[in-house]
Each structure stands twice: as C-alpha cells, then as structure tokens.
Specification:
homodimer; about 200 residues; mainly alpha; about 75% helix; about 0% strand; elongated
Chain lengths: ~200, ~200
Amino acid sequence: MPKIVDHDERRRDIAHAVLRVIARDGVRGADLRTVARDAGWSTGVISHYFGDKQGLLVGALREAAEAVADRMRAISRLGDSAGRVHALLEAGMPLDEERAATCRIFYHFSSDGVSDPAFRGELANYYSWWRGAVATAIEDAQPAGLFQGHDPVELAESLVALAEGLGIQSLFDPDAMPPARLRDRLSGMIIQLQTSESQQVDHV
Amino acid sequence: MPKIVDHDERRRDIAHAVLRVIARDGVRGADLRTVARDAGWSTGVISHYFGDKQGLLVGALREAAEAVADRMRAISRLGDSAGRVHALLEAGMPLDEERAATCRIFYHFSSDGVSDPAFRGELANYYSWWRGAVATAIEDAQPAGLFQGHDPVELAESLVALAEGLGIQSLFDPDAMPPARLRDRLSGMIIQLQTSESQQVDHV
C-alpha cells in the first residue's frame, strides 16, 4: 500500500519551519535550503509544495495569519468582555518569539501588500477582522459601565492601531521597547479609556 | 570651464524621483529604468549614484527620513505645545501622497530593518527621535494643565504607536481608513488624554 501523505499537514509543517527560521534569522535568512534543513525535508520537497522563496514566504504568511485568526477566534468566545478586549489586542502583538515571527512576515509583505491587490486584500481583511472583534468586545463591555461614551468601532480602530504601532517599534528597537513595556503601554491605555468617559471631540 | 555638478543635489533629485515613483507605482515599480525616466537622467547616471535597485531604495529611505526629520524639527520650534504634540504625530502619518510614499518605503525596509543592524539602527533612531520630540512637547504642555498625571515619555510611546498603527492600517486599507478618519482617531485620543487625568494603572 502506498504511504498516504497528508499534503495539507506537510504544507503546514513546512510553513511552521519558515516561521521558526524567520524568528531566528529574519526574513532574509528564510531561503529554501535553510528551511529544508529546519523542516527535515529536501529542497526538492519544499519547492514541490511552495515553488521558490517568494512562494515559501507567502505560504508562511497564510499560515501565520490563520494561526493568529484561530487564536483571536478562541479569545472571542471568552465570557469576560473587558479581558477579551485586552487579550485580542495582545494576540496581534510581538510579545513572544512566535508572534514576533508572525509580525515580521506581515511587515515583510506590507510593501507588496500596498501595491498588489491580492495581498492588500488579505492584509486588509486581517486588520478589518481584528478591529471588528475588538469592537464587539468593547460593545459587550459597555453594559457593565466600561468604555462609557465611546463609539466601539472608533475606539477599536484606535486600540488596534496602538497595539500595531507598539509592536512595530518593538521590532525595530527591542531594547527600548521590550514586551513588558508594550504590555504596560497597552494596559495603561485600556484602563484609562475604560474608566474615563469619552470627551466631546471638536475637530482640531 | 567644466560644468560644476552638485553631487549632493543630484542624489537628492534622484531620491525624490524614487519617492514619486513609489507614490505612484509602489515600491516594486521603483526600478532603475522607471526612476531614470522620471528623474530625467539616464540609467547610467542613476546607477553611478546609487548602484542597483536596492541602493536606490536605501538612498530614497535616507532622503525620506531626512525630510521627515526636518519637518519634525521645524514643528519642534513651534510655541504652542499642545498643537506641537498634534503636528509632530501627524508629520509621521500617511496623510498625503508624499508622506504615504515615505511610509511605504519605511515598511519596505522594516523586514530588513529587523535583521540588518545598520537599518535597524537607522529606523530605531527615527522612532526614538519621534518619541522624544513628542515627549518634550507633552512636558511643555503640562504646566498649562494638559495631559495631567501622565508620564510624558510613556504617553509619547503610546501616541507615536497610535499614529504609526493608524498609518499602517490606512496603507493596507485606504478605503476603510482614509486620511480624514486617521485625523479623527488621532484628535479624539489626544483630546481624551489631554483633558482627563491619568488613571492609576494596576498591572492587569
């Protein structure tokens, strides 16, 4: 009987190897040969599944996006809505090696994402989903007296932006912005916003 | 008499052409030939000054960073410190074509910036300078009763992150996050923070 190969699982294994290599060596280090060595397959097998380096990175991007989405979906089922706001935001931040690799591959494609409609759509969907999940959690928290006077959609845009922007500074400058500092900035802002009513905004 | 060539000026001219091409066609479109056509020089001249496409993009990155820094330095000399906080943050956001091109080239190098120490240092300096200028403006605004109870350095980290994160979402999803929406989110958060005292933060 021929050996049954689960192609989806093999693709996933290889994509995870790409993310491990990126976490260790950066995106530039994630060439076919290094990934093959890390995944324990020949470069022939790798290129059968992903083609060239670009295909490999796209595969890893999809896998990383899927993993983040899975984690966010799991968080979305939590009961405590204030904790959910917080956990959803942290899920997209580079607070450990895995999430840092995910962020790196996202930014690697950010430039293509701006010019290539397919990538752009993929990344736009990711941010849109993230904002939507946070907005729902904010809305759910409001009956308990939190985030009073804030428009959940608008506040979610700002909080996702805060999380994203903190993550980027951390990737460029991990000494000045280590994970603990990112957590503090995020917590500080959430607490500030959930306990103080929204101010009337006149356009400045 | 031989024609005197201002090499610095020519480099700057070419770098500006790169940014124009990026604004129009994205980073991928900024190859030697297209930039040469746009700058009005031969590809030979372009490659004399910048080498290959990578060199051209690095040159444009430096020029863009310098232009943003110049703008921020000019803003830092403004007297009105609350307005200065706002203007410094907007200076780094993709609110017009020029600033959008600057943001694109920054994100293009973000991946290299994470793995290459030289790039990383350059980008880390940029963010560090931005945070520092905003922190100083916040500190200057506090005697007038604004941003009460906030640590200027910490608040600057959060506000720069907000500005950066809004910009990124806008580049990926300009329909959902157009410039007017970015301005509103930024203004809303600044007004919220400058008029409400900082809450005591217990680590959550």
